[in-house]
Amino acid sequence: MAIEVGAKLEGKVTGITHFGAFVDLSGGVTGLVHISEIADNYVKDVKDHLKIDDVVKVKVINVDKDGKIGLSIKQAIDRPEGHQPSAPPRERFGGSGGGAGGGDRFPRGGGDRGGRPFKSGAGKPSFGKPSFEDKMSRFLKDSEERISSLKKNTESKRGGRGAKRV
């Protein structure tokens, strides 16, 4: 029996790894269900959803030249026409989204990467996107500030700058 892309088959889970599960189809042919194709929601551990010897319905999503078969459990589920799975919104960097705007666009404090609001440099009016030069000068300024702050902190911990050692 030839395995064709789009075919829905039943198979038996024969192996579980951290990246997915191997499913034995008919005639000793084995395919892989990647962890991202197991369920509509986020799958942290495959073992929370599947066990060895489980019989699952899978859809063949690709067949490589070298014989590797890609399978999907979530695509094998028959859904009503036009129905999209409702996935919960993802949070960036885990946690509560942190900072001023909660789960805002910026993960730490409602500004650019340093938690400070972005300011366009060189006194130019900002009409939407800042220019590359503005971004670069801002980056260099922030980088220099962070490095000097880091140096101050590490020198004081090491006993540098005239601190007395015991």
Could you describe the 3D structure shown?
By secondary structure, the chain is an alpha+beta fold. It has a domain at 8-76: OB fold (Dihydrolipoamide Acetyltransferase, E2P). The protein has 1 helix and 5 strands, in the order βββββα. It has one helix at 132-158, and strands spanning 8-17, 20-24, 30-34, 55-63, 69-72. It has a 5-stranded mixed barrel. β4 and β5 (69-72) form a beta hairpin. The chain is elongated and about 70 Å long. The termini are far apart. Residues 97-112 have low confidence and may be disordered.
Structural class: alpha+beta
Task: Give the overall average pLDDT.
Answer: 77
Helix content: 10-25%
Q: What summary fits the major beta sheet?
A: 5 strands, mixed, barrel
Q: Give the count of helical stretches.
A: 1
Distance between the termini: 80 Å
Q: Give the strand content.
A: 15-25%
Looking at the overall shape, the CATH architecture of the domain at 8-76 is Beta Barrel
Q: Output the CATH class name of the domain at 8-76.
A: Mainly Beta
Indicate the low-confidence ranges by residue numbers: 97-112
CATH topology of the domain at 8-76: OB fold (Dihydrolipoamide Acetyltransferase, E2P)
CATH fourth-tier homologous superfamily of the domain at 8-76:
Nucleic acid-binding proteins
Q: Tally of extended strands?
A: 5
Outline: elongated
Widest β-sheet, arrangement of strands: 1-2-3-5-4
N-to-C SSE string, H for helix and E for strand:
EEEEEH
How many whole angstroms does the radius of gyration measure?
A: 26 Å
